[in-house]
Amino acid sequence: MATYNVNVNGEAVKTTVINSASFVDSFITELILSCNYTNSSSSRPPIIGFHVEFTDEIKAATLQLCSGSRCIIIQLNKMVTNNSVPQSLINFLAAPLFCFVGVEIFQSLALLRREYGIVCRNAVDLTLMVNMAVMSGAVELENQSL
């Protein structure tokens, strides 16, 4: 496990790379707390950025989850044995209290479900929106991963 402060457009993002299932519980809790979910007057669920990196064999290697200035990178390929993942991660992704967003998220979720039985209850794919923004010149993309 290692924690880094990553500069993203002038903003510091505390990023922790987790390679052991024993650390997942506390970092999922920390990520939830970073959502400021205590604001009960809001009817919208907190938004969690979601991205999966795959190995050459099209197997999930890392799961990246981000909220505000907090990001965790879970190295699934280094911790998962017998195709099982920590229950806290399964519960977090299945909770309807959060909205998980990402580009091509449904393809990633289909592979995570097939490989590990992970189900995400509330996901939004941003692919169309990102493509429209790029085509209009509103944003410029760099092909970089954390």
UniProtKB/TrEMBL annotation:
Gene3D superfamilies given in the database record: Ribonuclease H-like superfamily/Ribonuclease H
Q: Which domain of life is it from?
A: Eukaryota
What GO cellular component entries does it have? cytoplasm; nucleus
Query: Residues of the signal sequence?
Result: none
Q: Which keywords fit this entry according to its UniProt record?
A: Hydrolase, Membrane, Nuclease, Transmembrane, Transmembrane helix
Q: Please tell me whether the keyword Nuclease is annotated for this protein.
A: yes
Transmembrane feature ranges: 89-112
Kindly list the GO molecular function terms attached to this UniProt entry. 3'-5' exonuclease activity; nucleic acid binding
Q: What is this protein called?
A: Uncharacterized protein
